[in-house]
Protein backbone atom coordinates (compact mmCIF):
# COMPACT_ATOMS: atom_id res chain seq x y z
CA UNK A 1 0.00 0.00 0.00
CA UNK A 2 1.19 3.50 -0.80
CA UNK A 3 0.67 6.70 1.19
CA UNK A 4 -2.65 7.47 -0.51
CA UNK A 5 -3.95 3.99 0.30
CA UNK A 6 -3.02 4.50 3.96
CA UNK A 7 -4.81 7.84 4.02
CA UNK A 8 -7.85 6.25 2.37
CA UNK A 9 -8.12 3.59 5.07
CA UNK A 10 -7.68 6.17 7.83
CA UNK A 11 -10.40 8.42 6.36
CA UNK A 12 -12.79 5.47 5.94
CA UNK A 13 -12.21 4.59 9.59
CA UNK A 14 -12.87 8.16 10.71
CA UNK A 15 -15.87 8.90 8.49
CA UNK A 16 -17.55 5.47 8.31
CA UNK A 17 -18.77 6.74 4.94
CA UNK A 18 -17.19 6.14 1.51
CA UNK A 19 -18.44 9.38 -0.07
CA UNK A 20 -17.06 11.55 2.74
CA UNK A 21 -13.74 9.67 2.70
CA UNK A 22 -13.51 10.21 -1.08
CA UNK A 23 -14.16 13.94 -0.65
CA UNK A 24 -11.26 14.22 1.81
CA UNK A 25 -9.00 12.50 -0.75
CA UNK A 26 -10.29 14.72 -3.60
CA UNK A 27 -11.33 11.69 -5.65
CA UNK A 28 -14.68 10.29 -6.71
CA UNK A 29 -16.50 7.69 -4.67
CA UNK A 30 -16.33 5.06 -7.49
CA UNK A 31 -12.55 5.59 -7.71
CA UNK A 32 -12.23 5.04 -3.96
CA UNK A 33 -14.43 1.93 -4.12
CA UNK A 34 -12.33 0.48 -6.96
CA UNK A 35 -9.06 1.01 -5.06
CA UNK A 36 -10.59 -0.46 -1.92
CA UNK A 37 -11.62 -3.55 -3.86
CA UNK A 38 -8.06 -3.89 -5.20
CA UNK A 39 -6.65 -3.81 -1.67
CA UNK A 40 -9.19 -6.42 -0.55
CA UNK A 41 -8.12 -8.56 -3.51
CA UNK A 42 -4.40 -8.14 -2.73
CA UNK A 43 -4.83 -9.16 0.92
CA UNK A 44 -7.59 -11.66 0.33
CA UNK A 45 -9.82 -10.32 3.10
CA UNK A 46 -12.90 -8.08 3.31
CA UNK A 47 -12.12 -4.62 4.69
CA UNK A 48 -15.60 -3.14 5.12
CA UNK A 49 -19.21 -4.19 5.47
CA UNK A 50 -22.09 -1.94 4.42
CA UNK A 51 -25.07 -1.03 6.57
CA UNK A 52 -27.92 1.49 6.49
CA UNK A 53 -25.81 4.19 8.16
CA UNK A 54 -22.74 3.79 5.93
CA UNK A 55 -19.89 1.32 6.27
CA UNK A 56 -18.20 -0.51 9.10
CA UNK A 57 -14.70 -1.93 9.24
CA UNK A 58 -14.28 -5.65 9.55
CA UNK A 59 -11.76 -6.97 12.13
CA UNK A 60 -9.32 -7.39 9.23
CA UNK A 61 -10.06 -3.83 8.14
CA UNK A 62 -9.42 -2.48 11.64
CA UNK A 63 -6.04 -4.24 11.68
CA UNK A 64 -5.14 -2.75 8.29
CA UNK A 65 -6.13 0.73 9.52
CA UNK A 66 -3.72 0.42 12.46
CA UNK A 67 -1.02 -0.71 10.04
CA UNK A 68 -1.80 2.25 7.76
CA UNK A 69 -1.65 4.74 10.64
CA UNK A 70 1.74 3.41 11.73
CA UNK A 71 3.00 3.76 8.16
CA UNK A 72 1.77 7.36 7.92
CA UNK A 73 3.46 8.30 11.20
CA UNK A 74 6.72 6.66 10.13
CA UNK A 75 6.60 8.35 6.72
CA UNK A 76 5.96 11.80 8.26
CA UNK A 77 8.76 11.30 10.77
CA UNK A 78 11.13 10.23 7.99
CA UNK A 79 10.29 13.31 5.92
CA UNK A 80 10.77 15.57 8.94
CA UNK A 81 14.09 13.97 9.82
CA UNK A 82 15.45 14.22 6.27
CA UNK A 83 14.61 17.93 6.17
CA UNK A 84 16.26 18.42 9.58
CA UNK A 85 19.47 16.76 8.37
CA UNK A 86 20.14 19.94 6.40
CA UNK A 87 19.96 21.88 9.69
CA UNK A 88 17.68 24.46 8.07
CA UNK A 89 14.50 25.88 9.58
CA UNK A 90 12.19 24.54 6.90
CA UNK A 91 9.57 21.86 6.42
CA UNK A 92 6.19 21.14 7.98
CA UNK A 93 5.31 21.98 11.57
CA UNK A 94 2.12 20.43 12.97
CA UNK A 95 0.74 22.02 16.12
CA UNK A 96 -2.50 21.86 18.07
CA UNK A 97 -3.88 24.49 20.45
CA UNK A 98 -7.06 24.89 22.46
CA UNK A 99 -9.57 27.26 20.86
CA UNK A 100 -9.15 30.31 23.11
CA UNK A 101 -5.36 30.30 22.68
CA UNK A 102 -5.81 29.82 18.94
CA UNK A 103 -8.09 32.83 18.75
CA UNK A 104 -6.23 35.31 20.96
CA UNK A 105 -2.57 34.31 21.40
CA UNK A 106 -1.49 32.14 18.47
CA UNK A 107 -1.92 34.48 15.44
CA UNK A 108 0.75 37.05 16.41
CA UNK A 109 3.09 34.26 17.53
CA UNK A 110 2.78 32.52 14.15
CA UNK A 111 3.13 35.79 12.22
CA UNK A 112 6.42 36.65 13.90
CA UNK A 113 7.77 33.11 13.61
CA UNK A 114 6.94 32.88 9.90
CA UNK A 115 8.45 36.31 9.26
CA UNK A 116 11.71 34.96 10.66
CA UNK A 117 11.39 31.55 8.97
CA UNK A 118 9.44 31.95 5.71
CA UNK A 119 10.24 28.44 4.45
CA UNK A 120 8.22 26.76 7.21
CA UNK A 121 4.75 25.42 6.50
CA UNK A 122 2.54 25.28 9.60
CA UNK A 123 -0.54 23.09 9.98
CA UNK A 124 -2.71 24.19 12.90
CA UNK A 125 -5.45 22.24 14.67
CA UNK A 126 -7.71 24.08 17.12
CA UNK A 127 -10.38 22.61 19.35
CA UNK A 128 -11.05 21.42 22.87
CA UNK A 129 -7.95 20.71 24.95
CA UNK A 130 -8.99 17.05 25.16
CA UNK A 131 -9.15 16.80 21.36
CA UNK A 132 -5.73 18.41 20.96
CA UNK A 133 -4.22 16.12 23.59
CA UNK A 134 -5.59 13.11 21.71
CA UNK A 135 -3.93 14.31 18.48
CA UNK A 136 -0.61 14.53 20.34
CA UNK A 137 -1.01 11.00 21.68
CA UNK A 138 -1.72 9.75 18.15
CA UNK A 139 1.38 11.62 16.87
CA UNK A 140 -0.76 13.66 14.50
CA UNK A 141 0.93 16.84 15.77
CA UNK A 142 4.42 17.72 16.99
CA UNK A 143 3.28 19.73 20.01
CA UNK A 144 0.12 20.67 21.85
CA UNK A 145 -0.83 23.78 23.80
CA UNK A 146 -3.64 22.84 26.18
CA UNK A 147 -5.35 24.16 29.29
CA UNK A 148 -5.88 21.97 32.34
CA UNK A 149 -4.25 18.99 34.01
CA UNK A 150 -3.15 16.25 31.61
CA UNK A 151 -1.18 13.11 32.48
CA UNK A 152 1.58 13.44 29.89
CA UNK A 153 4.59 11.14 30.11
CA UNK A 154 7.06 13.36 28.24
CA UNK A 155 8.04 17.05 28.10
CA UNK A 156 5.92 19.86 29.61
CA UNK A 157 6.42 23.61 29.61
CA UNK A 158 4.32 26.14 31.52
CA UNK A 159 3.11 28.71 28.98
CA UNK A 160 0.77 30.60 31.28
CA UNK A 161 0.05 30.25 34.97
CA UNK A 162 -3.72 30.49 35.21
CA UNK A 163 -5.87 31.06 38.25
CA UNK A 164 -9.58 30.69 38.88
CA UNK A 165 -10.92 34.05 39.96
CA UNK A 166 -14.01 35.82 41.19
CA UNK A 167 -14.55 38.68 38.73
CA UNK A 168 -16.77 41.71 39.30
CA UNK A 169 -17.39 45.17 37.89
CA UNK A 170 -16.94 46.85 41.26
CA UNK A 171 -14.66 45.85 44.10
CA UNK A 172 -16.33 43.32 46.41
CA UNK A 173 -15.35 41.26 49.45
CA UNK A 174 -15.55 37.47 49.42
CA UNK A 175 -17.79 37.54 52.50
CA UNK A 176 -20.42 39.33 50.39
CA UNK A 177 -20.71 36.61 47.74
CA UNK A 178 -23.66 34.60 49.18
CA UNK A 179 -25.85 37.73 49.00
CA UNK A 180 -24.73 38.87 45.52
CA UNK A 181 -26.15 37.66 42.16
CA UNK A 182 -23.87 35.18 40.40
CA UNK A 183 -23.59 34.52 36.69
CA UNK A 184 -22.77 30.84 36.57
CA UNK A 185 -20.97 28.94 33.83
CA UNK A 186 -22.84 25.74 33.04
CA UNK A 187 -21.26 22.97 30.95
CA UNK A 188 -23.17 22.82 27.63
CA UNK A 189 -24.66 19.57 26.42
CA UNK A 190 -22.55 18.27 23.55
CA UNK A 191 -22.67 15.31 21.23
CA UNK A 192 -19.84 13.71 19.33
CA UNK A 193 -16.55 11.96 19.87
CA UNK A 194 -15.03 14.30 22.46
CA UNK A 195 -18.18 15.33 24.30
CA UNK A 196 -17.65 12.98 27.25
CA UNK A 197 -14.08 14.13 27.90
CA UNK A 198 -15.11 17.77 27.47
CA UNK A 199 -17.93 17.44 29.99
CA UNK A 200 -15.70 15.50 32.37
CA UNK A 201 -12.96 18.17 32.22
CA UNK A 202 -15.28 21.13 32.71
CA UNK A 203 -17.41 19.34 35.30
CA UNK A 204 -14.21 18.71 37.26
CA UNK A 205 -13.54 22.45 37.35
CA UNK A 206 -17.15 23.14 38.39
CA UNK A 207 -16.82 20.60 41.21
CA UNK A 208 -13.60 22.25 42.35
CA UNK A 209 -15.33 25.65 42.49
CA UNK A 210 -18.23 24.10 44.38
CA UNK A 211 -15.84 22.49 46.88
CA UNK A 212 -14.14 25.86 47.38
CA UNK A 213 -17.52 27.51 47.97
CA UNK A 214 -18.68 25.08 50.65
CA UNK A 215 -15.27 25.12 52.34
CA UNK A 216 -15.89 28.82 52.91
CA UNK A 217 -19.70 29.21 53.07
CA UNK A 218 -22.54 27.17 54.58
CA UNK A 219 -25.22 28.49 52.22
CA UNK A 220 -25.61 27.97 48.44
CA UNK A 221 -24.67 30.72 45.96
CA UNK A 222 -27.35 33.13 44.74
CA UNK A 223 -27.31 32.12 41.05
CA UNK A 224 -29.41 34.36 38.81
CA UNK A 225 -28.07 33.34 35.37
CA UNK A 226 -26.80 30.14 33.76
CA UNK A 227 -24.68 30.67 30.63
CA UNK A 228 -22.72 28.34 28.37
CA UNK A 229 -19.46 30.26 27.78
CA UNK A 230 -16.94 32.07 29.94
CA UNK A 231 -17.05 35.00 27.52
CA UNK A 232 -20.78 35.39 28.19
CA UNK A 233 -20.10 35.30 31.94
CA UNK A 234 -17.58 38.09 31.52
CA UNK A 235 -19.86 40.28 29.41
CA UNK A 236 -22.66 39.96 31.95
CA UNK A 237 -20.25 40.99 34.70
CA UNK A 238 -19.00 43.96 32.66
CA UNK A 239 -22.59 45.17 32.47
CA UNK A 240 -23.00 45.06 36.22
CA UNK A 241 -25.39 42.07 36.32
CA UNK A 242 -23.46 40.15 38.99
CA UNK A 243 -20.17 38.43 39.62
CA UNK A 244 -18.75 35.25 38.08
CA UNK A 245 -16.07 32.66 38.84
CA UNK A 246 -14.00 31.88 35.73
CA UNK A 247 -10.40 31.17 34.65
CA UNK A 248 -8.42 34.40 34.85
CA UNK A 249 -7.03 34.01 31.32
CA UNK A 250 -10.41 35.09 29.94
CA UNK A 251 -10.01 38.57 31.45
CA UNK A 252 -7.78 41.07 29.66
CA UNK A 253 -5.96 43.78 31.66
CA UNK A 254 -7.64 46.60 29.72
CA UNK A 255 -11.11 45.36 30.71
CA UNK A 256 -10.50 46.71 34.23
CA UNK A 257 -12.52 44.08 36.04
CA UNK A 258 -11.77 43.32 39.67
CA UNK A 259 -10.35 39.85 40.27
CA UNK A 260 -9.95 37.79 43.42
CA UNK A 261 -8.05 34.50 42.83
CA UNK A 262 -9.60 31.50 44.56
CA UNK A 263 -7.51 30.07 47.40
CA UNK A 264 -8.20 27.07 49.61
CA UNK A 265 -8.30 27.62 53.35
CA UNK A 266 -4.78 26.18 53.58
CA UNK A 267 -3.50 28.99 51.33
CA UNK A 268 -3.07 26.90 48.17
CA UNK A 269 -4.33 28.68 45.02
CA UNK A 270 -6.75 26.96 42.62
CA UNK A 271 -5.03 26.92 39.23
CA UNK A 272 -5.78 26.01 35.62
CA UNK A 273 -2.51 26.37 33.76
CA UNK A 274 -1.76 26.54 30.03
CA UNK A 275 0.88 23.97 29.10
CA UNK A 276 2.92 23.12 26.03
CA UNK A 277 3.31 19.34 25.68
CA UNK A 278 5.71 17.61 23.30
CA UNK A 279 7.97 14.62 22.90
CA UNK A 280 11.66 15.04 23.58
CA UNK A 281 12.31 12.95 20.47
CA UNK A 282 10.64 15.68 18.37
CA UNK A 283 13.48 18.06 19.21
CA UNK A 284 15.65 16.24 16.66
CA UNK A 285 13.63 18.04 13.97
CA UNK A 286 15.10 21.51 13.48
CA UNK A 287 11.79 23.26 12.82
CA UNK A 288 10.15 21.75 15.91
CA UNK A 289 13.15 22.54 18.08
CA UNK A 290 13.23 26.14 16.87
CA UNK A 291 9.50 26.69 17.36
CA UNK A 292 9.51 25.27 20.89
CA UNK A 293 12.45 27.51 21.78
CA UNK A 294 10.60 30.45 20.27
CA UNK A 295 7.46 29.79 22.36
CA UNK A 296 9.58 29.50 25.51
CA UNK A 297 11.21 32.86 24.78
CA UNK A 298 7.90 34.57 24.07
CA UNK A 299 5.94 33.36 27.10
What can you see in these coordinates?
The chain contains 10 helices and 12 strands. The protein has 299 residues and is α/β, with parallel strands linked by helices. The protein folds into 3 domains: 85 residues, Winged helix-like DNA-binding domain superfamily/Winged helix DNA-binding domain (Arc Repressor Mutant, subunit A, Orthogonal Bundle); 103 residues, D-Maltodextrin-Binding Protein, domain 2 (3-Layer(aba) Sandwich), CATH 3.40.190; 98 residues, Periplasmic binding protein-like II (D-Maltodextrin-Binding Protein, domain 2). The strands form 4 sheets. The chain has a 5-stranded mixed β-sheet with strand order 4-3-5-12-6, sandwiched between helices. Strands 10-7-11 form a 3-stranded antiparallel β-sheet, covered by helices on one side. α1 packs across α4. The protein is globular. About 3% of the residues have low confidence. This is LysR family transcriptional regulator. Belongs to the LysR transcriptional regulatory family. GO terms for molecular function: DNA-binding transcription factor activity; transcription cis-regulatory region binding.
> What do we call the CATH homologous superfamily of the largest domain?
Periplasmic binding protein-like II
Give the strand content.
15-25%
Order of helices and strands: HHHEEHEHHEHEEEEHEHEEEH
> Regarding CATH, which class of the largest domain?
Alpha Beta
Count of DSSP helices? 10
- CA-based shape: globular
- Structural class by secondary-structure content: alpha/beta
At CATH level 2, the architecture of the largest domain is 3-Layer(aba) Sandwich
Strand adjacency order, main sheet: 4-3-5-12-6
Arithmetic mean of pLDDT: 88
Q: Helicity range of the residues? A: 40-55%
